Hints:
Elements: H1 3-13, E1 21-28, E2 35-44, E3 51-58, H2 63-80, E4 85-90, H3 93-100, H4 109-119, E5 124-129, H5 136-146, E6 153-155
Parallel strand pairs: 1-4, 4-5
Antiparallel strand pairs: 1-2, 2-3, 3-6
Helix pairs in contact: 2-4
Amino acid sequence: xxxxxxxxxxxxxxxxxxxxxxxxxxxxxxxxxxxxxxxxxxxxxxxxxxxxxxxxxxxxxxxxxxxxxxxxxxxxxxxxxxxxxxxxxxxxxxxxxxxxxxxxxxxxxxxxxxxxxxxxxxxxxxxxxxxxxxxxxxxxxxxxxxxxxxxxxxxxxxxxxxxx
Length: 164
């Protein structure tokens, strides 16, 4: 099965039943911008309204750095909300590779140590690759916050005009 079909199958599975929380994460990076953007969008299996976050950080070294920062921030937000069973989703294949083979990514070792330590806070944790199309909400949040002129962090108090 080719990659496109595999991703479509995986995206279709997102419609199925699940327990705990699903957290979609994305980083946004542009060389000419002052900030990187991080965004997450979380749904719960028990019918709670979705939660979401958007924050800009001093522009990181690369798009992949922004993706890692987005995941770490989303993990910290989930821990802070006492969500212990979380399936995380990203459209960045290198991020999935990195957390599954950390020793092959020495330039990211500081981030990966932080990732390991945060991951231990969860009873159930996974990180899966999804298509960009299935990650539009997190992508939208990350892109919008990246272009803000000042440092800003939103958790659930997202500006109305940013919403999808």
